[in-house]
Each structure stands twice: as C-alpha cells, then as structure tokens.
Amino acid sequence: MVLIGVTPSLTEKGNMTVNQDYMDAVFRAGALPMLLPLTEDEAVMREMLGRVDGLLLTGGDDVGPDMYGEEKLPCCGETAPRRDRFEFPLCRLALDMDLPILAICRGHQVLSCVLGGNMYQDIATQFSPELKHPQYSTPRDKVHDMIVEEGSLLHKITGLTKFQVNSRHHQAVKTPGAGLRVIARAADGLIEGVELPGKKFVLGVQWHPESLSDRYAEAQALFNAFVGACT
Ligand code: MN
Questions:
Q1: Nearest alpha-carbon partner for 155 in 195, 190, 188, 107
Q2: By the 8 A CB rule, do 192 and 205 touch?
Q3: Cα-to-centroid distance, 44 and ligand 1 (Å)
Q4: Is 75 part of the annotated catalytic residue set?
Q5: How far is the CA of 147 from the centre of ligand 1 (A)?
Q6: pLDDT per residue over 166-177, tens digit each?
C-alpha cells in the first residue's frame, strides 16, 4: 500500500492537528496517510521521506514573511514558525529526492516560497478585494471559477479547463518560485495552481480539493493522480 506522509498543524497548546478530510481523500485514493511529526533535524526528515512514497503538504496558518525576505505587515495573519522550520527543509529535501508532492493551500505557498517565490500578505489589502477568496463559511461549497491551462498537469488530471473551487485563503502566491509553471488562476488573475515540470509529480493548489473530494470527481482525481505517481 502506498504510504503518504502528511504534515500537521501545531496548536498553541502544542497538539498536532490535521483535518480528517485530507486523510479520507488519501484513503479513497487507495493509499495510507501517516502524520509526520514536526522536527528540525534534517537527518530525521530524510529518514521520514525515505519511508514514505509521497508528501502531502497541508493547509494552515500563513507562511512567515521572513521565509520570503519580508517584514510581517499588520494585514498578515497568524504564522506558524515551527511549521516553517519543519516544512521548508522537508519540502526542499523531497524536491531533491524527486518524491511526489501534493501541496495544498499553505502547502502550495510553502512550495512556492521554498523555490524563492513570495506572497501577497493579504489579498484584499495588496491585490484586490473583488473576489471572496477568504471563505469564512464552509469549505464544502464552491465559490469561484478557476481557469486551468490547457495541457497542464491539472488539465490532464481533471480533463477540465475551467471549474469552480472552494476558497479559504486571505493570502496568495505573488511571484511563483523558480521553475514553477502557473497552471490555474481565479477569474481575478490570482494564482490557484502550479506544477513543477521535470519532476515526477509536483502539484500545488491554493484551493482545498480534500473538502470537495467526497462529492466532486475532479477534486478526488488530484489525490488519485498523486497516489498513482507514488507507486
Ligand atoms: Mn481562491
């Protein structure tokens, strides 16, 4: 059975948490998800990555602006320095090993920043308040259109060039990291998906396919394709 390493959040009290939706989507794809506890020891990270077949970087708090060389502005949200110190080297190592990576929301932002990209610290303040990217209600509803580039990994996986997605982010990738190809954008132009050509499977999405994957085939298809690339 394919084993997928999943990165958790860390609460203020120090508990690891991760939404069950991620686990269920991986289970539905026929693989076994496993939480990777936070560490800052790169030798341990290498051990972890050597034992899993793929890496799932999950959503969570904002990436610390120090990770992309900026001061934290008042419009920036809660950050997670311990997660940054774990996930940045972990993602870098996984890329070096050419381990398949599915990076969702914060994970997609981590992936881009690891490769030297930067962020809008707040979409409404620094980009445009036009589209409701922070969806404060349920992530189970689709709220905005997304245009998918023809011939991209996302197009190949879903067979679609346009579909609706949920949206639970107040930040977005501003300049994508080196080598990343932007493959999906919201109607307002914000980046909603990236891939890294030349790698086995590296896909970043700003939306939350795990929360739609029980009802929408195109959302589950991302997990199926990811797990398929891990075998
Ligand atoms: Mn969005």
A1: 195
A2: yes
A3: 34
A4: no
A5: 11
A6: 999 999 999 999
Contacts of 98 (CB under 8 A, 6+ apart): 199, 200
Is 208 known to be catalytic?
yes
Q: What is the mean pLDDT of residues 60-83?
A: 98
Whole-prediction pTM: 0.98
Domain carrying residue 28: 3-229
Distance 134 CA to ligand 1 centre (A): 7
Distances (CA, A) of 20 to 40, 69, 110, 145, 210: 25, 33, 21, 25, 9
Considering Cα of 191, then 213, then 85, then 51, what sign does the dihedral take?
Answer: negative
Please tell me which residue in 170, 208, 218, 230 is annotated as part of the active site. Answer: 208
Residue 184 CA to ligand 1 centre (angstroms): 11
The CATH number of the domain holding residue 202 is 3.40.50.880
Confidence category of residue 132, pLDDT binned at 50, 70, 90: confident
| Annotated active-site residue in 87, 192, 195, 210 | 210
144 catalytic residue (yes or no): no
Distance 219 CA to ligand 1 centre (A): 15
Cβ–Cβ under 8 Å, residues 204 and 111: yes
Name the domain count of the chain: 1
